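Weekly modeling sync, notes
Attendees: S.R. (lead), two postdocs, one rotation student

Agenda item 3: backlog of single-chain predictions. S.R. asked that every request posted to the team notebook include the full sequence so nobody has to chase files. The rotation student volunteered to paste the first one in as an example of the format we agreed on. Action items at the bottom.

Example entry:
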Amino acid sequence: MELLTVMVCVELSGADDVVAVHLWAKAKLDWLRGFVKHGGGIPSHDTLGRVFGMIAPKSLKPPSDAGWAW
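Predicted structure, as returned to the notebook:
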């Protein structure tokens, strides 16, 4: 849940690669802890890249009948 929270916030902030994600999350860690624990801190950009490299892009899109424009 912690990583998902980071990714949603980062997407809204406009970061476009895992290094930018890591830097943003590290800078906002105290703020992020207001939502979820983040007991282990922010994962490295290498870890973020491995985790999100395993997610199939199609699994992140809503169903075509959801009415959202992508």
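Discussion: group reviewed the output briefly. Residues 2-62 form one domain.
Action items: rotation student to repeat for the remaining queue; S.R. to check formatting next week.
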